[in-house]
């Protein structure tokens, strides 16, 4: 079993930046693709970004492409999401996820979830 703990969420004005972190414990996640999902009130949880297990490949949802950057440090068992040029529509609970494989985009393909961290962007 693995435990994922997110941090770094908060309240920011539109145009601002936040950096989310996801620390893993209990099991190494080096063999997993890692991703971020988000869920806004009244909406389904949606894919945001994914990074391959070795960090060489990344993929983003169109809504965040060019603004968000996913990265990982396998030595620290930690994944990051740098979020720039934030918009009010980015407001959601952000979840870290260990994915079955790099091509995973669905919540059904998540092996482990974090508990989530709230990001609120004010206009």
Task: Give the key terms.
single chain; 123 residues; mainly beta; 4-stranded antiparallel sheet
Can you describe this structure?
With 123 residues, the protein is an all-beta fold. It has no helices and 11 strands. Strands 2, 4, 5, 6, 9, 10 and 11 form a 7-stranded mixed sheet that branches. A hairpin with a 6-residue loop joins strand 4 and strand 5. The model has no long low-confidence stretch (mean pLDDT 94).
* Rough outline: globular
User: Major sheet, described briefly?
Assistant: 7 strands, mixed
Q: What is the average of the pLDDT values? A: 94
* Portion in strands: over 45%
Low-pLDDT segments? none
- The radius of gyration is 13 Å
Q: What structural class do you assign from the helix and strand content?
A: mainly beta
Helix count equals 0
* Strand and helix order: EEEEEEEEEEE
Set down the secondary structure blueprint.
Blueprint: E1 3-7, E2 10-13, E3 18-25, E4 33-39, E5 46-51, E6 58-60, E7 68-73, E8 78-83, E9 92-99, E10 110-113, E11 117-122
Parallel strand pairs: 2-11
Antiparallel strand pairs: 1-3, 3-8, 4-5, 4-9, 5-6, 7-8, 9-10, 9-11
């Amino acid at each position: 079993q693995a435990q994922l703990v997110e941090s770094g969420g908060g309240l920011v004005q539109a145009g601002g930046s936040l950096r989310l972190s996801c620390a893993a414990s209990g099991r190494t996640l080096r063999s997993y693709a890692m991703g971020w999902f988000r869920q806004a009130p009244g909406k389904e949880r949606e894919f945001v970004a994914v990074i391959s297990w070795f960090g060489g490949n990344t993929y983003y949802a169109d809504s965040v492409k060019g603004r968000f950057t996913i990265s990982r440090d396998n030595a620290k068992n930690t994944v990051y999401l740098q979020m720039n040029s934030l918009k009010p529509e980015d407001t959601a609970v952000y979840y870290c996820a260990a994915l079955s494989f790099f091509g995973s985009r669905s919540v059904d393909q998540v092996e482990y979830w974090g508990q989530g961290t709230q990001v609120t962007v004010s206009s």
